[in-house]
Amino acid sequence: MKTLLKTLPQRQKTAVLSVVLLICSLPLKSQKLPDMPELQEYRKSLAGIDSLMHKGILKDESSGLEYFTGYSYKTLYDWDQYFEALVQVYMGWPSAYIKNGVIIFLKNQKESGMISRSVPSNEWHDPEHVKPFLAQISLLVCKAYGEKDWILQEPYFSKLKKYLDFWLVDMDSNKNGLSEWMSGPHTGMDNQHERAGFWLDRNCEGVDLNAYLVRECRAFAKLAALAGKNKMAQEYEAQATKRIAKMQELLWDDKDGFFYDRKVDKDKSISKTVWAYNAMNARAAGQYKIPVRSVAAFTTLWAGVATMQQAKRMINEYLLNPREFWSPYPVATLSKSEPGYSTVPLPTDMGCSWRANTWMPTNYMIYHGLKFYGYPQIASVVAQRSKELIRKAGNREYYNSETGEGVGLDPFWGWSLLGHFFDLEESLNWDINALE
Asked: How many other C-beta atoms are found inside a 10 Å radius of the C-beta of residue 402?
């Protein structure tokens, strides 16, 4: 198209562009993404994966709805569901399990708009609001399957808005335009306590959280536009823009060239006391900045928050630095410069380890962030190394960044299966999680 336009006089060029714009404005009647020939051919070699995934089909006792989870202990989690949805699309599965997962969460909404972050919930998850991915999952279904009425109908659309507003208003306790995590486990990076604390600490305005909220506001704005609510769509797009400005103002450290989490209360320390966290508390005493270098910072690339210059600094000075995040099997989820960088959990760690380990969803976000900012060669290396991990250790929950050894659930049929599709996205230059 670009070559054609260069050869045309300006008047004909204008006419061609007008036709293209008209075609682009027409309702989509194209083939559903899961049915595309490229995908059908690619998944022929993944029959074993399809069989493995069927272990994750379960029924919610309360609603009677079937859903998919990657966990053998039968829990439906919040952000896991987004990346699991991508896998289901690529595997050609029907949309029902993805939609039901969103609906199950919305059916568990409290009057305030708050939704506990797992189904079934428990005493630890009850006070922690579901991570901001429900609108992104809903938009993915609209794009991949051409199905929108299920989420635009009431009461689900209003519930979706109410859940997002709880993040934007109720989870911004100091009203500075940034929302906060309740704990390290709440981030999903379970044992990164040095940046996000322990249960109910609620003192971390997370870089990752606010990057997710930028994407979530934009996804909801697109859903609102599909519902014909154009004013609402503009309001939530403006919310995303304002949040980016706040992240630039309060989370970017120009001296270090890195996005850091920020305390809600600069004088508050983390509740638990072991050597690593005492060290962090000493470093962060009397300041808002939480000087911990986590893979969470690279979500600013995935969400388009970083400027081009900021992205360049983070990539060159940190991502590719073997003294920081670039490990033998990248990308480590905690910098090697951190006291808590460890191939084994520390004594008071909770949940899975997000220290000297590599996780597929964070690699996937980094991969697309690199491509978005114009670093396709580095993105390709991340893709290749991610695929190497699966070839070396199989379908595991996560991987040791130093040795490539598989860690956690074995076998795992959740979000780690994204690693099988890096080759596909590389060859076709696809980005099905783009919001455009």
From this structure: 16
As a whole number of angstroms, the distance between CA 2 and CA 246 comes to 37
Contact 357, 401 (CB under 8 A): yes
CB 167 within 8 A of CB 132: yes
CATH number for region 134-428: 1.50.10.10
- Name the region of 200 (left: φ>0; alpha: ψ -120 to 50; beta: rest): left
SS3 content of the chain, % helix, strand, coil (to 5): 50, 10, 40
Report pTM. Answer: 0.91
- Which residue, among 310, 313, 207, has the nearest Cα to 251 in the 3D structure? 207
Give residue for tokens 């309702």.
27
Per-residue model confidence (pLDDT) at position 27: 37
Question: How do residues 206-215 score in pLDDT, each as one tens digit?
Answer: 999 999 999 9
The structural domains of the chain, with segments of one domain joined by +, span 134-428
- According to DSSP, residue 170 is labeled I
Quick: pLDDT tens for 88-142: 999 999 999 999 999 999 999 999 999 999 999 999 999 999 999 999 999 999 9
Burial 337-376 (b: 16+ CB within 10 A, else e): ebbbbbeebbeebbebbbbbbbbbbbbbbbbbbbbbbebe
Residue 4: pLDDT band with limits 50, 70, 90: very low
Rg of the Cα atoms in the chain: 21
Neighbours of 331 (CB within 10 A): 23
By C-alpha distance, which of 261, 368, 259, 381 is closest to 327? 381
